[in-house]
Amino acid sequence: MIGASTLTYLSDKIGRRPTLISSLLSLGIIGTLISLAENILAFIIGRFIQGFFSPGVLLVSWVLSYENVPIGLRGFVTLIYGVMWVVGFCAVAPLVYFIANWRWLMTAYSVPSIVFAAIYFFTIPESLHFLIVNGRKERAAKWIRNAEKYGKVLHKRNVDMMVELLENTCLDVKEHEHKTEMTENLRSSLIEQLMEHKIFCVYTFILIFLWTSDTFLYYGLSNYSIHLPGNKYWNYVLSGLAELPAYITIPYALENFGRKRIVACMHFLVGISHIILIFLPNNFIWLSALCWLISKFGISSSFMCIYVYGSEIFPTTMRNVCLGLCAVIARFGGVIAPYVILLGSMHALLPTILFGLIAIITGILTCILPETKECILPSSLDETAQTKYHSSKSPICQEQSNLPATSSSINQFD
Q1: What is the pLDDT of residues 46-76, one digit of tens each?
Q2: Are residues 168 and 54 in the same domain?
Q3: Where is the chain membrane-spanning (predicted)?
Q4: Would 293 disulfide with which of 62, 242, 345, 399, CB 3.0-4.6 Å?
């Protein structure tokens, strides 16, 4: 939580690239030092520092990748990001299997971070958006020329004019955001605004519960997979591979079936899978594993959806604050997830019952939320109270229609 708020702020001040590279280096160096720890206190301090820097890799790398690729390739970036997450998730099992000593295991985890930091230093450019917004015209022009050299998309003429156009556009956007923020600050505080609109207050609490339960279920299912019948290493790898279909199919499902329906159905899928697990005999190992994998697919799908869903429910003036609130509180779900193992020591079915119950409750609460597919995004709580998400051709296009166009203006230089 501390690292997420600090490093994302730092990336806005000094840049995405230095924040990402320094976070990778810190993770690798601290992890290597942890392998030399002589007592539990040194180990805990080292792991705390690693936890501080991990958001600098997870969050900043996402932003940097999105800001460095064309809009048409961002769906592909999402897929690659998800696939690489699965690769890293699954790589843990063979490392643990072949490396028995924890000191060497920590070293094996940490060295790749240092290697990738070196690779990124020589290959990954700074975000073009960051360069333009901070007035670094020469570096922005160099970025565009470099993209033209490798991508064969842009022409060399009018590079300076393009940079100036992008700079003016970013300044207009910042001025638009500043005016919106100043207008909202003249009113009351966040809590008072929520209390003025009771239904939106309900939506906020439901989304907080949804994020927290999804975090708890995701990490709980991942951690508890090694306690299932069968080979614990294969169970862990399979629980990671179960996420791949989610990353491939959910973007299509969201566009065609809506957000609310998909999120609710995925939670009911998790709940039903665990209800089946409760009544399965112990000798049905493969069927038990299949139900567990289906539930892992369901919660991974929901996890992908809630970022889109939450962004479309919260109004523009409060979106960052409300999403940040959801993300921070959801961390507590991840903190308590490892302790589900203690329930298993009391009774083997207690973790299964708990997972299924939380999933079904979350699915029922999701039904209270509005559908946001192809709906107008509200700009403020007042607009939220006055509208019931009237249909429009695209929520993203609807919101961006109030901002200066960029891509169409840039295309004139091609």
Answers
A1: 988 988 888 778 777 877 776 777 766 666 7
A2: no
A3: 20-37, 43-64, 76-99, 111-133, 200-221, 233-254, 261-280, 286-309, 321-342, 348-369
A4: 242
pLDDT in tens, 85-114: 888 888 888 998 898 888 999 999 889 999
Written as one letter, the residue type at 176 is H
Q: How far apart are CA 353 and CA 344, in angstroms?
A: 11
* Residues 341 and 268 occupy one common structural domain: yes
pLDDT value of position 390? 42
Distance CA 94, CA 371 (A): 42
User: Above 60 in pLDDT, residue 358?
Assistant: yes
Cα separation, 228 vs 189, in Å, equals 48
Angle between helices 40-67 and 2-14 (to 10 degrees): 40
pLDDT tens column, 296-321? 999 988 888 887 777 677 765 566 56
| Residue 214 maps to a domain | yes
In this structure, the answer to whether residues 119 and 161 fall within a common structural domain is no
Which two tokens mark 49?
């520092």
Angstrom distance (rounded) from CA 207 to CA 319? 12
CB 19 within 8 A of CB 127: no
- Shared domain for 348 and 312, answered yes or no, is yes
pLDDT of the residue at 376 = 58
Residues 211 and 152 reside in one and the same domain: no
pLDDT confidence of 18, banded at 50, 70, 90? confident
Label residue 382 exposed, middle or buried (CB < 10 Å: 0-12, 13-18, 19+).
Answer: middle
